[in-house]
Write a structure and sequence with these properties.
This protein is an alpha+beta fold. Helices cover 41% and strands 11% of the residues. The chain contains 14 helices and 10 strands. The chain starts with 5 loop residues before the first strand and ends with a helix.
Length: 441
Amino acid sequence: MEHRCVIAWPRETDYIKGINSPIVFKAVTDGDWRPYEKFFERQKFTWETDGCVVFTDQESFDAQVERQIQAGEIDAPTLEFFNQMGFMDTNSLDGKAHFHSSVRFIQVMTGNGRNGNPLQTPADVMREYGILPWTDLLFDASITLDEYFAPIPQNLLDKAAMILKTLGGADRLLDSHWINAGGETNTSAMDEARKQAPLTIAIFAEAPSWNAVNPPIPTPTLTGNHAVLNDWSDANGEWCLDHYPPFEKELLTGYPIHYVYQLVVNPLSIVPVLPATIAPTQANVDILAKILALYQKLVALIQPKVGSITSSKMNLSTLWTYTKHTAAAGIIIALPIVYNLAMNKWGDITVGAIMTLVYAWLCKRFGIASQTLGAAKGVTPPTSQEVMQDLWNGIDSLFSYAFSNPIGAIIAFIVIALLFIAPEISILLLGIIAVAYFMTK
């Protein structure tokens, strides 16, 4: 085992916890990240990647996303997006689908090859270039050195950039800071910080004695040459996830740990691109974020609780009726209908366009086939991204008026507030109003 993959190089612009870091501490675990580690990655099969820093930060990122998923903090559209992109990998320790990103992509994009990386570099790469699923650029015993470090194809670069943009860009993906930038070992600070996110630590590992559950304690003055993920601790020391077997090792009390870096993954969600007709102000972004949350509530309310759309009504959402398409149509179009009825101004939104949009969406989403939907029969169900884009086009026109008209804005906010306070009752009433309006046309 050769170790030459760590560069302990704090920069003047780096954040340090407790000194200049803007990261707000929030404990999301008791400091034990093992329940969220679903893959044991090897950095060496027949040849050495010297990628321990990258492997460690990738494992930290994945564990944090997995925790968000297990805690129910990631909404259904974002989970579906992860599925569509290929992040949910069943080749895991328990054989179930878990979030799994590509370490190979990150290491190639560092541009450092096998020459090692600063502890900060993987975070920099993810913020600049994005992330890819493990299966897009995997690493196993079949991958040669040349294949591993080959330039990333343009289609995968574009995909990573799209994923980053969809998740809100660099500022929304993750933050990072030093817990210890070269000082004396401070396990108390590590144990407290680890409640928020696992820790990337640089330590000295000497072959072959390193490959043991309890590696021998090295001389404190030796420079760190290996990176591992500090994921929990007990009375005897600090445990870590390594990339050489045994994968779980404990650094006993007294083991020197002078460099500790932490990636903090922000809450992940799909962030739609701001429509071109709406000024990119923070106030408007906040409004659109609320609209997106409303959309998610609408979808949750009209989706069957169990089974399929042909299941017994007792298994369906309470908002479904015998005329399923009209009830759902009313729910989806309620907001623009109420707004335009109140303002008596359709603008760019026409009744026919809304009805066409709603019926096409319903047919694709639920597989409804009837004489009313006619030609739309058999359309492949859309992804949540497509549904969101369809709805967003209508919302774009609608709220471009609301934001420029005080009365319209007040009405829109009242409707949104009502939907959040009593969603099932208010949406049903608005749906009835909308359907009644169309029946008179």
